[in-house]
Amino acid sequence: MYSLLIEGGRPLEGEVTISGAKNAVLPLMAAALLTREPCVIRRVPALSDVAFMVRILTAVGAKVRSQGDTVSIEANRIRGFCDYDLVRKMRGSVCLLGPLLGRLGQAKVSLPGGCVIGTRPIDLHLKGLRALGAKIQIDSGYVCAQTRRLKGSAMFLGGRAGPTVLGTANVMMAATLAEGVTVIQSAACEPEIVDLAEFLNAMGAQITGAGSPTITITGVKELHGAEHEAIPDRIEAATFAIAAACSRGEVTLRGARPEHLHAVLDKLEEAGVRLDRAGGNLTVKGGRRLRPVDVTTQPYAGFPTDAQAQMMVLMTQASGISILTERIFETRFMHVSELARLGADITIEGPSAVVKGPSVLSGAPVMASDLRASAALVIASLVARGRTHVKRIYHLDRGYERIDDKLRRLGARIQRLSDS
Ligand code: EPU
């Protein structure tokens, strides 16, 4: 198990290259199961979640080869079973359900279970697949789905907190091979869904409307192999942007797509952070004084829940009271008690965190609870006086490619320790 030892107080300066998006790549890899022909996915980040997905695809019979940031997948002969031991380690593996059902007419995938950010049901995934004609039962912790041939249908996939990202991905993938036309209303509009639709269309699917709340999929008989480059990771970009701002540094995010980051950049500017978009690059310049801001997380194009914990650190450095309301995963505040150990003044009131700043943070041992909470602790450590020991960072390695190397190149004093 690794941990990070960080000595704070230095502004981040320089350039960082944004990696491929974890949350785009996982469904893209699953989509390769929809065809017998080889698929090639580029800009795949070296993450433990990606390594898990490789293991899962191999376990269902696909041949997977990785070379640098390119992954080739050939799913000539596959089976529709995915074991609990693999699935429980990564919730993203639920997106195998759609492709397996579409391609084989059957899928038995372990229920992913909850995680620290909430209960994470999959009722909307099942509702969508049932609307396509699948017979689904939950049996001994497995989702068992079966169909002779999926049939296109119109469906509404909005839930209590809005649309579902992986639910939309699952239904969209299954519907590519269904008979007839499927219309998903209240579809997720995230850039990762657009990326997936582009890959599926390159494989021969007929999808229109991805990126809007109504997606139309006209089923085809079969899909063929294709090549695709994943989009850059907007949450990694947001994380480095917020880290640069909090450290009062100046960082250029190479490869970031500002058009995927409107809500985050808008709040950074409101907080007094300067942004330079010259030459197609995005440069973030942290000012001396940060202003308080109020943020509510929402489905895309709103402020992403995956950048909420990181933004909370910025609020601890702003002069005044900021209110952060979490509307996607209402218990996603596990980082608050750890930030308080570093000296942050945060009170939870229902779905909101009231953050009083500016706080002088000081280094302490802290424990990471999930991926984005870990990122927040790293940003807080960069700001804190003295040394912070961030423990249990396997969460970080799930979703950030070599974050310690990238930060070190920006001037951070950060050391990876192997705790035996
Ligand atoms: N929901 C339901 N029923 C469902 C599915 C979702 O009620 O069947 C609810 C959830 O409980 C939540 C909301 O709908 O309140 C949105 O959840 P969504 O299904 O969109 O989340 P997800 O698809 O499981 C993806 C990302 C998450 C990210 C969310 C929201 C992947 C692999 N995961 O999860 O990423 O937070 O969308 O944007 O794409 C992360 O990267 O740290 C992470 C957790």
Query: From the 3D coordinates, which CATH architecture of the largest domain would you assign?
Result: Alpha-beta prism
Structural class by secondary-structure content: alpha/beta
Task: Please report which band the strand proportion falls in: under 5%, 5-15%, 15-25%, 25-35%, 35-45% or over 45%.
Answer: 25-35%
Overall morphology? globular
- Helicity, as a percent range: 25-40%
Total domains: 2
Tally of contiguous helical segments: 14
Bound compounds, each kind once, are: uridine-diphosphate-2(N-acetylglucosaminyl) butyric acid
How widely separated are the two ends? Answer: 7 Å
Annotation, overall tally of beta strands: 24
Q: How would you state the average pLDDT, rounded?
A: 95
Report Rg: 21 Å
CATH hierarchy, class of the largest domain: Alpha Beta
* Widest β-sheet, arrangement of strands: 22-23-1-24
The CATH homology group name of the largest domain: Enolpyruvate transferase domain
Summarize the structure.
With 420 residues, the chain is of the alpha/beta class. The chain contains 14 helices and 24 strands.
Explain what you see.
- With 420 residues, the chain is α/β, with parallel strands linked by helices.
- It has two domains: 2-18 and 233-418, Alpha-beta prism (UDP-n-acetylglucosamine1-carboxyvinyl-transferase, Chain), CATH 3.65.10; 22-220, Enolpyruvate transferase domain (UDP-n-acetylglucosamine1-carboxyvinyl-transferase, Chain).
- It is 31% helix and 25% strand.
- It has helices spanning 22-31, 48-59, 84-87, 97-104, 123-131, 165-175, 191-202, 234-246, 262-270, 308-317, 335-341, 371-383, 394-399, 403-409; strands at residues 2-7, 13-17, 39-42, 63-67, 70-74, 81-82, 106-110, 135-139, 142-146, 154-156, 181-185, 206-208, 214-218, 227-229, 250-254, 274-276, 282-285, 295-296, 320-325, 345-349, 352-357, 365-367, 387-391, 413-418.
- The strands form six sheets. The protein has a four-stranded mixed β-sheet with strand order 22-23-1-24, covered by helices on one side.
- The radius of gyration is 21 Å and the shape is globular.
- The mean pLDDT is 95.
- The protein binds uridine-diphosphate-2(N-acetylglucosaminyl) butyric acid.
- Uridine-diphosphate-2(N-acetylglucosaminyl) butyric acid binds next to helix 1, helix 5, helix 6 and helix 12.
